[in-house]
User: What shape does this take?
Amino acid sequence: MFKVDRDSVRQWVNIFALIITLVVNTLANALPLNGMMTGAISDSFPIFFVPAGYVFSIWGVIYLALISFIVFQARPSQRANPLLRRIGYWFALACAANSVWIFAWHWLQFPLSLVFMLTLLVSLMMIYVATRNGGRPVTRGEKWFVQVPFSIYLGWISVATIANVTNVLYDVRWDGFGIAPEVWAAIMLAVAAVLGLIMIVRHSDIAYIAVFVWAFAGIAVKHQTVAIVAGSAVAAAILVAVVLLARRVLLMQPGRPRLSAASGD
Assistant: This one.
């Protein structure tokens, strides 16, 4: 009787899920979908929690990292890898959420886009946790082709989710309790910085924090004429970078446990 190899099915589902995501994201701007570019829609919102256009080049890094993950997980030697089994179909769900978000965004369904963005965020959080709670040290390959790609991806989606929330609030004409938009941007930057600090304390993850610094710097560049926004962005970038460096130096001191690969070392 024919027996289905569940691990092989998972490998192939992940491969096709990423291919679909890459195709959808490429067509989004190549056609473009609904006659609008993804970035142009974002720029149409007069909000401050949006970085300069060059910052979005990080998607190239993310997709190259995800391709490396797909190639790694597709190898026959990795078919029964417990780490990859724990990821399960969360990656496929993340790809689906990413793809559907594109359609919601291009057809200006902003509240719906937030639903898919949150789905993507939760999926990546589940993957992040699954790749760090295995009870064994990870191999070098697992670190570079599994942990690092999802650290970068989760870092960017963490920032993108905050931006998506601000877009939706503007779309529904929320008045911000009378607080000026630039002040709300400073508050959102503080929230993002706190999230970064929590990740430093829990995981000391360089790749994740590097994405935050990249995004904060991009916000400072785009809104350099708005003192409170640019100043808050620069302060947030410096804060998380310095705290990460200090924590890693502290953990490497004699008599203290060395950072493991699971901690982002």
About this structure: Residues 140-171 form the longest helix (32 residues).
